[in-house]
Amino acid sequence: MKRIRTKIMIFVVLLVLLVNGVTFYLYQNSQHTIHKYHDSFQRFIILNQISQETATVYEEMNAYILEKSPEFLVNYEEASTKLKQDKERLFEEVGNAENQLMVTNYFNLIDTFLEECELTIDAFHEEDLNVYSFHLNEASQVSQYIQDTTLSLLNSELTGYQDFYHLMEEKNFYFQAMGISLFFSTIILSLLAALWFSRGLTKPIRLLSESARKISKGDFSGEDVEVRTNDEMALLGDTFNRMRGNIRELIKEIKDQSELDRLLKEMELKSLQSQINPHFLFNTLNTINKMAYLEDADKTSSLIESVSALLRYNLGTLDKPSTLKDEVNIVKEYFFIQQTRFGDRVNFETAIEEECLDIEIPILTLQPIVENAFIHGIEGYEQEAKIGLNVYNENNQVVVEVWDNGAGMDDIVKKKLLDSDDGARNELTSKGHSTGLGMRNVIKRLEIFYKGACEIDIESELEMGTTVRFKLPYYVRQRSDHYVASHGG
């Protein structure tokens, strides 16, 4: 992940390198131009100095011959020394491939001039009038040649300087254009980078702000905020999305918990409506049971024991889960009571795998379903009525089936039973149930208890019977702690 600070530093470094690189290029070219200008100007100076020094040497020599003053001789020697020094700089600073021959001739002319001057001075000291006059005349002519050659060299330099000047003007225009281009390019790049950075910052912030505004109004729906940058804003967006998802899950859990509380309160209310001094009723049933036992009425005693067990179970603590084994035992007690009541009109069949009975299940789950099958399915049958309970393992799931061969139900009733809408639930009454609980209440509690991991299905056709099937997961023991803790267990 690239930090925003790192991105800014990279951009600033690249921008500085670009500006400094172009500036260094311009500086190097300007320095090269200055050096060329300096060299050209230096050649002008040397040629001008040689021209002046040649004239000075001749004038000082001529003045010495005319005046015979030692001062003029000293001046002559100094001027000759300077001329010799400047002469040695010709090939290094003035000569090039184009004027090499002219510079060589110029160099030889200076040598000849200095030599004629020396011969003139020597002949003058020897008072040989004809000789020094001859050499003086030769020195004058050579000096004139030097002056002419100097003008030729200067003219050649001026011609080359004109080309150099035009080239320098072109470079100057090029440098100006480059400077202006660099100025505007820097501004454009800075604006583009600013837009890029600001978009990478402001767009996620705007999206997060809009989502936060919805959350503040209680709206936790909507899609996740998508942040495509690879920096702190992406981390912030992911964290925000996870936070909103966690809040949604928490709200769902709270709603489920509230619904479960409502169902439990409804169960408790129904149970309270059916309670008539439980202790008195239990004591009365126990007394009747003992009297039946003393009178050798074993079947009556067993029936009273079944009613007591059923009543005790129904009046138990409703906010704690039970086990499938306890639910099956209560259903068997209910079977016994109903079979005692209706005799051969009703047959009860069970097919139960004992290893499947250890899982946990909400209390009062099977009895309301069996009662529903009896009341709405087979109660009106005079013979061959059947109710069955099957418990078996299938693909690591515990399958519980309650079936009957009764009146059945149409698709509208099935849809209402399986529909999560409260209106549909309110339309289904539990009239006639000993528990006061209807099918819809049982289905809703199963959905909440297993957190959607329970599969519920109803197979039914009119006059063809009904099968209510639950597929329960094996891991419910891990979920029951939450169920118990949430309801004071």
Describe this structure in words.
71% of the residues lie in helices and 9% in strands. It has 489 residues and is an alpha+beta fold. The strands form two sheets. The protein has a five-stranded mixed beta sheet with strand order 2-4-5-7-6. The model is unreliable at 423-429 and 476-489 (pLDDT under 50).
Q: What structural class is derived from the secondary structure elements?
A: alpha+beta
| CA-based gyration radius | 59 Å
Helix fraction? over 70%
Q: Tell me the β content.
A: 5-15%
**Ranges with pLDDT <50 over ≥5 residues?**
423-429, 476-489
What's the total count of β strands?
Answer: 7
What order do the strands of the largest sheet run in, or round the barrel if closed?
2-4-5-7-6
Order of helices and strands: HHHHHHHHEHEEHEEHHHEEH
Can you give the mean pLDDT?
77
State the end-to-end CA separation. Answer: 48 Å
The best one-word shape is rod-shaped
Number of helices: 14
Largest sheet entry = 5 strands, mixed
Summarize this, please?
With 489 residues, this protein is α+β, with helices and mostly antiparallel strands. The protein has helices at residues 4-67, 70-88, 90-94, 100-125, 129-216, 232-274, 278-294, 298-314, 324-342, 366-378, 411-418, 422-427, 439-449, 476-486, and strands at 322-323, 346-352, 360-361, 385-394, 397-404, 455-460, 466-473.
Keyword list:
single chain; alpha+beta; 5-stranded mixed β-sheet; two-stranded antiparallel sheet; 71% helix; 9% strand; disordered C terminus
